[in-house]
């Protein structure tokens, strides 16, 4: 840090999050100086298009550069804030910074979930801090509690809604009957969606967050590839309506559980009862339940996406790393000592809600029930709606291994009395 007590920050990226961070830095400059004990100054801002009109952003245009690597390497840079996203070139920039002893604040969940180990190793090598509160559940202080406050406890389960875009879409489909495409377009306009929204709607973004949460909660290493993932592109208006008929809503859930020496981590749409606390989480809000042996149940709720909420988390991290630099200390590094194995999805215990279009004739119910019995899957409820060509059977199972449920559905598809398996949704929280 410069002798005049200035913390010089290289900002990589000035899009939805970066621009809000610049704005907040400017507006809160005096308070941040008082809180850190040093003035924060932007040393440079790496972007793809330096000449772009940035709508009166309070920043000197001379700070913009397209050469992020040279900016990171500059001797006068103390801290690197990365809000670009993606694996490369971000990984190369951050490893360079950390090895050189420059602390890093990043919102890049994709990179942390893909190769967090390399970033943590570089941070240890350079004696630098690596903070990433914005990477999971935006503004919600969640990773700091997992990294610090709960280190005296044993976390057994983490469940939540961690993707704002899909929650916005599913809430709109449920509340206003909006179409999928229209709701996604609006979520993108509002700055919730990733640069490529496929990451949101196919569940990759939530899976990356699930990997980060499971790693921190269970003191192990879980990567995005370890997470079972399904997105919401197959959730139809009919599914939403069918859930509503049964007093349920559909949410994209993240579920991470520890049992013994193994973890199971999954992301998929699921039906939950309207009375469940997660059912009330609307718009782009996120909510995460943490269950710990001594603490019991904890719930974290707030804005999981959007420029300003995410910038709030980035700035909180910047204050922390700034203070550490000033006092010459470093936060605890990665804690992955538990080294747990990852349980395959087939072994996870789940429940299914299955809607079958069936022929309306005697014996159908018995034939269908036999298929469930053959796979040792116990049926909770059966409901028949319609008659003749419109007959549908809605079956909700008890808990069973996911592999047994999947095999049941595969065999149901083969029955000639089953015209189609209209929908299969997991059920949680009841
Ligand atoms: N938007 C949101 O609600 C949230 C975003 N995040 C994460 O924050 C990061 C940034 O997200 P957004 O601001 O939404 O993205 P964005 O697409 O709006 O902004 C990305 C910025 O990076 C710059 N950039 C891209 N490639 C570059 C390169 N090769 N060299 C220099 N600059 C380059 C672009 O010019 C742009 O300024 C991502 O990792 C995202 O996953 C995390 C939480 C919430
Ligand atoms: N695209 C993400 C942004 C925040 O992480 C989301 O929709 O949650
Ligand atoms: Na957060």
From TrEMBL:
Its cofactor is a metal cation. It holds the Pfam family NAD_binding_3. Keywords: Amino-acid biosynthesis, Methionine biosynthesis, NADP, Oxidoreductase, Sodium, Threonine biosynthesis. The keyword NADP applies. It catalyses: L-homoserine + NAD(+) = L-aspartate 4-semialdehyde + NADH + H(+); L-homoserine + NADP(+) = L-aspartate 4-semialdehyde + NADPH + H(+). The keyword NADP applies. Pathway: Amino-acid biosynthesis; L-methionine biosynthesis via de novo pathway; L-homoserine from L-aspartate: step 3/3; Amino-acid biosynthesis; L-threonine biosynthesis; L-threonine from L-aspartate: step 3/5. It comes from the Bacteria. Its EC number is 1.1.1.3. Residues 353-426 form the ACT domain. PANTHER family: HOMOSERINE DEHYDROGENASE. Catalyzes the conversion of L-aspartate-beta-semialdehyde (L-Asa) to L-homoserine (L-Hse), the third step in the biosynthesis of threonine and methionine from aspartate. Belongs to the homoserine dehydrogenase family. This is Homoserine dehydrogenase. It comes from Pilimelia columellifera subsp. columellifera.
């Amino acid at each position: 840090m410069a002798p005049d007590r200035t913390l010089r920050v290289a900002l990589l990226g000035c899009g939805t999050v970066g621009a809000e961070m610049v704005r907040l830095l400017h507006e809160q400059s005096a308070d941040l100086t008082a809180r850190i004990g040093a003035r924060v100054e932007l040393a440079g801002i790496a972007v793809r298009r330096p000449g772009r009109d940035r709508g009166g952003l309070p920043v000197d245009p001379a700070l913009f550069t397209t050469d992020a690597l040279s900016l990171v390497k500059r001797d006068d840079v103390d801290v690197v804030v990365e809000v670009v996203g993606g694996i490369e070139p971000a990984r190369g920039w951050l490893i360079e910074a950390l090895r050189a002893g420059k602390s890093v604040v990043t919102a890049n969940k994709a990179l942390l979930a893909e190769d967090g180990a390399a970033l943590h190793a570089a941070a240890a090598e350079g004696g630098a801090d690596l903070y990433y509160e914005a990477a999971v559940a935006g503004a919600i202080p969640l990773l700091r509690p997992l990294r610090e406050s709960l280190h005296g406890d044993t976390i057994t389960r983490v469940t939540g809604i961690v993707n704002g875009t899909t929650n916005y879409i599913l809430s709109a489909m449920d509340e206003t009957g909006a179409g999928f495409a229209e709701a996604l377009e609006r979520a993108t306009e509002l700055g919730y969606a990733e640069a490529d929204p496929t990451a949101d709607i196919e569940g990759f973004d939530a899976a990356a967050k699930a990997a980060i949460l499971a790693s921190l909660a269970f003191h192990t290493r879980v990567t995005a590839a370890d997470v079972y993932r399904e997105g919401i592109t197959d959730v139809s208006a009919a599914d939403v309506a069918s859930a509503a008929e049964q007093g349920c809503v559909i949410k994209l859930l993240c579920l991470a559980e520890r049992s013994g020496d193994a973890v199971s981590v999954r992301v998929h749409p699921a039906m939950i009862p309207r009375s469940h606390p997660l059912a009330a989480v609307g718009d782009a809000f996120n909510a995460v339940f943490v269950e710990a042996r001594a603490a019991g149940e904890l719930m974290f709720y707030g804005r999981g996406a959007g420029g300003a909420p995410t910038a709030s988390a980035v700035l909180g991290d910047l204050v922390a790393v700034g203070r550490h630099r000033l006092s010459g200390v470093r936060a605890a590094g990665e804690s992955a000592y538990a080294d747990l194995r990852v349980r395959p999805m087939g072994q996870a215990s789940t429940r299914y809600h299955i809607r079958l279009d069936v022929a309306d004739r005697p014996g159908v119910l018995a034939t269908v029930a036999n298929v469930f019995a053959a796979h040792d899957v116990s049926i909770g409820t059966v409901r028949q709606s319609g008659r003749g060509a419109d007959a549908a059977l809605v079956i909700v199972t008890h808990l069973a291994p996911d592999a047994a449920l999947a095999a049941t559905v595969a065999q149901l598809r083969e029955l000639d009395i089953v015209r189609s398996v209209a929908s299969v949704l997991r059920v949680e929280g009841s």
